[in-house]
């Protein structure tokens, strides 16, 4: 009998994971690195939100295991007979993908991950195509929406560093890669590939193991008050059926899940509008980004490289695979939050942004603080505002960007489910969730924050008037 190890989690309780997964995946340098990669970028707003990608990945594995259990329990026996030959390989691939979906995540949550693609937007996709190496995958990856950079790095590590673990756990590397980046099979209609597509939706979809864990975990850690999700009730309702419209396998939920899915939408809507787009969160991430760019300029100047080239070297998938990988005598192996902090400390005297971020003594203050305030101030011309026009007006006032002011865009769009993705099975028919729950405000609330330095803050009213005059 396979033994389990128990991880005590304050969110989900005791999480049982087979020892084979622990020895082959969790107890490795790459996975343990996630203990030093922060889950959330909102501690400037919620100081208690201190949790990492390690426990989040354990939580996603836990939810994924429950997904597998309830799909097995809920599937009709005659349908299970069709998929039984492929079931074990697909579910093992899914559980491995749940565990590894963030293994390549950049430090400090999402603040730095765009640097993975800087100046080389196709590089990570090309690397994935090299290791998967079949025409079907190459075709399908071109058809899918662009995956996030950290998803592509995580998928690459699953297919390379963890390839032996995948094989020994009887999974399939291509299935795992597709699940992490959301790359569905588009032309192959075999029952096995249809089953894989169903599991892709519960790792890289609208209601999936990843989203469910970070929704409840962020809420628990930060302490913000919004809707609550009964995870177990939601997962008990998950089923696979044949879509009456085309005869293909479809992942869906019974009607018992409707209120829980609505709660998930409410939590995501709250996070998008009031947490991720908060003026302090936006400014804190901006200052941290400017600090690491200053590090890159200093290191690059001393090593004869440009800033962009240095950023490409720092945020590179090779830092996961090469113990000797370094820059400016700074080891980049197993790049994590503490590596970035060491760089900021090393350049502290020359790096004003590092001084500002480490002390949290913000040099600039926002002129307005909410989307509602922005709407009130610029209701007559908000549709014509853009960053270039605002910058031109402030420059005409004699203000210097980055020194006297900053402009940051926030897309406070309401959260809505994509049409035709989340299905509810009611009396044998599949109904789109968007036809069953009330939608939030559909218009996107894109806005611009303007921050003024403290010695220029008395110009607040004049700056507002100048922006109001933009046509």
List the helices and strands and how they pair.
Layout: E1 4-9, E2 13-18, H1 19-26, H2 29-32, H3 53-74, H4 77-100, H5 123-132, H6 135-143, H7 149-159, H8 163-168, H9 173-181, H10 191-201, H11 209-222, H12 231-236, E3 238-242, E4 249-254, H13 258-275, H14 279-303, H15 307-314, E5 326-327, E6 330-331, H16 337-346, H17 352-359, E7 364-366, H18 371-377, H19 387-396, E8 405-411, E9 423-426, E10 429-432, E11 446-453, H20 460-468
Protein described:
This protein has 471 residues and is α+β, with helices and mostly antiparallel strands. The protein has 3 domains: 4-275, Hypothetical protein af1432 (Orthogonal Bundle); 278-362, no CATH class; 364-414 and 440-471, no CATH class. The protein is 49% helix and 11% strand. The chain is built from 20 helices and 11 strands. Strands 3-4-9-10 form a 4-stranded mixed sheet. Helix 9 (173-181) crosses helix 10. It is globular and about 75 Å long. The chain starts with a strand and ends with a helix. The model has no long low-confidence stretch (mean pLDDT 93).
